[in-house]
Automatic annotation (TrEMBL):
Family: Belongs to the peptidase S9A family.
Gene Ontology molecular function, alphabetical: serine-type endopeptidase activity
Official protein name in the record: S9 family peptidase
Range of residues in the leader sequence: 1-27
Domain Peptidase S9A N-terminal: 38-439
Length: 713
């Protein structure tokens, strides 16, 4: 951070960094302040080798796994300085937006408490503080602060608590800390009777935690130090030295992710292994931490499942002969043999089962139908009497809250829409009655001033793409409004129409906000995902473009005022759209974008690569190499006009390495034939999720919105 601060205050240092990062030809002509001209990265010969052919990559040198190379840091800092100089012209607008956005945050807030054992647990925020405070209250209402993340963050440029789990006897708390943004966690254990942390810790872990019933044994996952893949399940006893942690399971297949957890009833510990098309669950009696894990069902390709335990049986969500998933069950004594699985809720072609929660008398399912998430309640003793939790809005989301008790008829869920702030309800599954527990307070917001709607765009192959819309009441559909269009479209992750308080700073200025539910997600069921991955991935990009064309044709937007935004794999979407249809966009915002697809997927030392061969394909093999190359944003940059582009990344990002967007921007600078701004910001102390503090994140959003609004002035 010291280097970064010096750069902001010293033009001499800026000029020096400019010279270090630029090519020799540029150095000879650099006669003005470094911030007045875009940095031009040096090109250095490098060959990316592949069984399918070699490629020249003159910007490969920007990859620095240590994040300490002087030339690389100089280039990133020069780009930051260039962006800072550009946005100085509209600094007042940025400050106004930041004030607006933060003004819609209730700064002193508390989550709805949930009962576990003798305590009510909740999370608090205090006015002016960036981070959460985890608290609990006893039966007399006495509150105990278990963990104040603001104190952990003191002196740190980044702080995140990835997970927190209290022991069964509620005397100890295990929590995972990341102070770099790289999602490599350190296990800490706190004695809740004294408030003191144990001196012994484990490092290099993923965030998952599972407790045994002895209140002394923990199961955690150790990551590979190079690939960061979750590979080894370790059994650790509280208070012992880190090197005493015992290996209990090691995953040899590097295409699987892994995590551990306790079943809802606390009776079992689970090791969950998950790959794009296959899963496997291992279970261990939580009363026997030194026992042997058993496999619930052996892995098979194109066979996925997840499970929870209830009254001696396993309730299972699975795609076994069911692309949209079905619900099944098996007695614990029959685990390991899926031929003994019995159907509970059959597969349906028009409904995708997203999630489930089990109770003594009911099964609750979170389903997708017509692109919306709703909740269905099925009584165990009368499945024919299943019912839905109703909604009056056209576009909405209902998802489960934290339900930690099985012996209850009360389901907690959260309802949200583009105009309705997150609202927590307690739903009586026996009577159908529901109680409002909390609606998030949003200062300076009046829901009656806005409207939400749905429309359907027709893709180039005839597929109907659902689109969720938000605009101000009184909006005139006359083709004059600016449009902010968002999508993701990968990994089966759906872009639901949640309430987003920040977006109203654009909507209040006349924008239409659109969420394009493009293929690659699962909004319309499993096939929606299958039609947007591997050798059908280009559907994701053309869907987004076709949604834009539809919204312009239907006069929701002015053709010269369309802005697109996406992050991570959604950043890939932005990069592909920039190459394929730049003329349709005034500006594109690509956050932590996955844009160097082929090179990354060829390199199995990079985190996440091997896990994702079934998402993108393995470019060592045909036809995947040529297909991926045909849309990879970095590889497809060409001599043409591009829209204005804002690119952001984090130096410590472990999901999409910073050097992908760095290389992409460097190449764009030498190829784009327009005069539109191309800005690149690297957060030098953050990872994939950006800044860790809640207000710091709001500032980053304000910067994005200011970039957009400045283009319209």
């Amino acid at each position: 951070m010291a280097l970064k601060n010096r750069l902001y205050t010293s033009s001499l240092v800026l000029s020096t960094l400019w010279l270090v990062a630029c090519s020799p030809a540029s150095q000879n002509t650099a006669t003005t302040d470094a911030t007045s001209q875009p940095p031009i990265a040096e090109q250095r010969p490098y060959v990316v080798e592949s069984p399918q052919g070699n490629r020249q990559d003159p910007y490969y040198w920007l990859r620095d796994d240590s994040r300490s190379d002087a030339d690389v840091l100089a280039y990133l800092e020069a780009e930051n300085a260039y962006y800072d100089a550009y946005r100085a012209d509209y600094a007042e607008l940025t400050e106004t937006l930041e004030s607006e956005i933060i003004g819609r945050i209730k700064q002193d807030d508390t989550s709805v408490p949930y009962q576990k054992g003798d305590y009510l647990y909740s999370v608090k925020y205090e006015a002016g503080k960036e981070y959460p405070i985890y608290v609990r209250a006893d039966k007399e209402g006495n509150e105990q602060v278990m963990l104040d993340v603001n104190k952990l963050a003191e002196g740190q440029s980044y702080m995140s608590v990835g997970n927190l789990e209290v022991s069964p006897n509620q005397q100890l708390m295990a929590y995972m800390v990341d102070n770099t943004g790289r999602r490599q966690y350190e296990l800490r254990i706190r004695d809740l009777t004294t408030g003191e942390d144990n001196a012994q810790t484990l490092t290099g872990l993923s965030a998952s935690i599972a407790w045994a019933k002895d209140n002394q044994t923990l199961f955690v996952i150790e990551n590979d130090p190079q690939t960061l893949l979750s590979t080894r399940v370790m059994k650790y006893r509280v208070g012992e030295a880190a090197d005493t942690a015992e290996l209990v399971y090691e995953e040899k297949d590097n295409t699987f992710y892994m995590w551990v957890n306790n079943t809802t009833d606390g009776e079992y510990i689970q090791i969950n292994l998950d790959q794009t098309v296959s899963t496997e669950v291992h279970v261990l009696d939580a009363d026997e931490p030194d026992g042997q894990f058993q496999v619930l069902a052996p892995r098979e390709r194109d066979f996925q499942y997840s499970a929870d335990h209830l009254d001696g049986r396993w309730i299972i969500r699975t795609d076994l002969n069911a692309p949209n998933f079905q619900m099944m069950q098996v007695a614990h004594e029959n685990i390991g043999d899926k031929s003994k699985w019995q159907p509970l809720v059959e597969h349906r072609d028009d409904v995708f089962i997203q999630d489930f929660a089990v109770f003594s008398n009911y099964l609750a399912m979170n389903e997708r139908s017509d692109g919306l998430r709703r909740i269905r309640i099925v009584p165990w003793n009368a499945p024919e009497e299943a019912k839905f939790i109703a909604s009056d809005e056209e576009a909405y989301v209902t998802v489960f809250e934290r339900n930690v008790q099985q012996d209850t008829d009360t389901l907690r869920y959260t309802y949200s829409s583009l105009t309705t702030p997150s609202t927590v309800y307690a739903y009586n599954m026996a009577t159908g009655e529901q109680e409002l527990l909390k609606q998030n307070e949003v200062p300076n917001f009046d829901a009656s001033l806005y409207e939400t709607a749905r429309t359907w765009a027709t893709a180039e192959d005839g597929t109907k793409i659902p689109v969720s819309l938000l605009y101000k009441k009184g909006f005139k559909q006359d083709g004059t409004a600016p449009l902010y269009q968002y999508a993701y479209g990968s990994y089966g992750s759906s872009s639901d129409p949640y309430f987003r308080s920040t977006i109203f700073s654009l909507v209040d200025r006349g924008f239409v906000y659109a969420i394009a539910h493009i293929r690659g997600g699962q909004e319309m069921g499993r096939q929606w995902y299958e039609d947007g991955k591997l050798l059908k991935k280009i559907n994701t990009f053309t869907d987004f473009i076709d949604v834009t064309k539809h919204l312009v044709a239907e006069k929701y937007a002015h053709p010269d005022k369309v802005f697109g935004m996406g992050g991570s794999a959604g950043g890939l979407l932005m990069g592909a759209v920039a190459n394929m249809a730049p003329e349709h966009y005034r500006g594109l915002m690509a956050h932590v974008p996955f844009v160097d697809v082929v090179t990354t997927m060829l390199d199995e030392s990079i985190p996440l690569t091997t896990n994702e061969f079934d998402e993108w394909g393995n470019p060592k093999n045909q036809p995947y190499y040529d297909y991926m190359l045909s849309y990879s944003p970095y590889d497809q940059v060409k001599k043409q006009d591009y829209p204005a582009i804002l690119v952001t990344t984090g130096l410590h990002d472990s999901q999409v390495q910073y050097f992908e967007p760095a290389k992409w921007v460097a190449k764009l600078r030498t190829h784009k034939t327009d005069a539109n701004p191309l800005m690149f910001k690297t957060n030098m102390s953050a990872g994939h999720g950006g800044s860790s503090g809640r207000f710091a994140r709001m500032k980053e959003i304000a910067e994005e919105y200011a970039f957009i609004l400045n283009l319209l002035q």
